[in-house]
Automatic annotation (TrEMBL):
Similarity annotation: Belongs to the Gfo/Idh/MocA family.
Molecular-function GO term, any one: nucleotide binding
Name of the protein in its database record: Gfo/Idh/MocA family oxidoreductase
Organism of derivation: Candidatus Segetimicrobium genomatis
One of the Pfam families matching this protein, by short name: GFO_IDH_MocA
InterPro entries: Gfo/Idh/MocA-like_OxRdtase_C, Gfo/Idh/MocA-like_OxRdtase_N, Gfo/Idh/MocA_Oxidoreductases, NAD(P)-bd_dom_sf
Domain called Gfo/Idh/MocA-like oxidoreductase C-terminal: residue spans: 134-324
Source organism, top-level taxon: Bacteria
Domain Gfo/Idh/MocA-like oxidoreductase N-terminal, first and last residues per copy: 3-120
């Protein structure tokens, strides 16, 4: 069976998915839509499909699945409409830019027979998948972690400095590693967070402590104006005389115990689509459709990540610890 797929949003990440999906024999790209006709036409020509005006036209082409790759604040409406039409959805992160929006998507996903998968691509990145396996096999027993997710600027693409479109900086790159904390360390029980406003019109630097339900403590840092000097993304996890350190998605260093050999795995030379997990997340989405399986990143994951972002903002506003799940 061939899965007919349409894309809404012909920008940077729409292009990444379109080029990946084009190489999958199980996929027929039926069209690409964008509010900017010329963007849709450019990407459609590149990947050999039709430019379309909007989601309705994508559905009219008989799409069985749609990728929603529009700016953050424009995810909920098309996602809910597609799910209500019984069309499978791959939504770029974030799920929504408000808790209400995320709850609407989660409710629509629960009601629909169609699947919903969220674009937390890092879960499929070989570097993070390796750390996840170490923990799952009991070879790393996390007690403490230090997590950093910086961004160089809020300038590119231009809408990322507009809070009403992003939902706030934490919904941008930061949400990826908030999700990664949950993925690697389990549910987060409480968040304490402070913030500063330095380079933009909204809080753009955050220092948080996440208390995991399993007991681990995480110090979490995220800054929007760090420049792109490496490393901007790093996770350090410490167990009893154990340490694991990731640098971007390029390297993982493992120190398994005192007096034992320290090893480093390097993924730097992988193609970007593989190293960042994009190829795997797209393949898994198509697998899930064809095999009727639960997608790898679910609406529940999206809702919990939204709660983590909102808990950080609430803690900044109230100067108090915020317990999760949110009431
Ligand atoms: N998972 C990742 O690694 C990753 C990376 C980049 C972006 N993203 C996410 O993907 C989304 C898109 O980001 P981008 O960097 O591709 O942005 P972009 O600006 O490059 O592309 C967005 C496209 O959507 C179009 N658009 C805007 N509003 C629309 C609407 N209402 N209907 C149809 N088209 C519309 C724009 O014209 C533009 O072509 C964002 O939510 C972003 O957070 C995820």
């Amino acid at each position: 069976m061939v899965v007919k797929v349409g894309i809404l949003g012909a920008g940077y990440i729409g292009g990444v998915h379109a080029r990946t999906l084009r190489r999958d024999d199980r996929v027929n790209l039926v069209g690409i839509a964008d509010i900017r006709r010329e963007a849709a036409e450019r990407l459609a020509a590149e990947v050999g499909t039709r430019a379309l005006p909007d989601l309705a036209a994508v559905l009219h082409e008989g799409a069985l699945a749609v990728y929603v790759t529009t700016p953050n604040a424009h995810h909920v409406e098309p996602v809910v409409a597609a799910l209500e039409a019984g069309v499978h959805v791959f939504s770029e992160k974030p799920m929504a830019t408000t808790l209400d929006g995320a709850r609407r998507v989660a409710a629509a996903a629960a009601r629909s027979k169609a699947l919903y998968q969220l674009g937390f691509n890092r879960r499929w990145a070989p570097a993070y998948a390796f750390v996840h396996d170490l923990i799952a096999r009991g070879e790393l027993r996390p007690a403490m972690a230090h997590v950093k997710m910086n961004r160089g600027e809020l300038q590119n693409p231009p809408w990322v400095s507009t809070t009403s479109l992003t939902g706030g900086f934490l919904y941008e790159s930061t949400i990826h590693l908030l999700d990664m904390c949950r993925y690697l360390l389990g549910e987060i029980a409480a968040v304490t967070c402070q913030a500063r406003t330095t380079a933009y019109q909204e809080p753009d630097g955050f220092a948080a402590v996440l208390r995991c339900a399993g007991g681990a403590l995480v110090t979490f840092h995220s800054c929007a104006h760090a420049t792109w000097a490496f490393p901007f993304e790093r996770i350090e996890i410490f167990g009893p005389h154990q340490a694991v350190v990731t640098e971007e998605m390029d390297r993982v260093t493992v120190s398994p115990g005192l007096g034992r050999e320290v090893t480093t795995r390097a993924y730097a030379q992988l193609p970007m689509e593989e190293k960042w997990g994009y190829r795997a997340e797209d393949a898994k989405f198509v697998d899930a459709i064809l095999e009727g399986r639960r997608p790898g990143v679910t609406a529940e994951d999206g809702l919990r990540a939204t709660e983590l972002v909102e808990a950080c903002y609430r803690s900044v506003r109230t100067a108090a610890e915020v317990a999760l799940p949110l009431a």
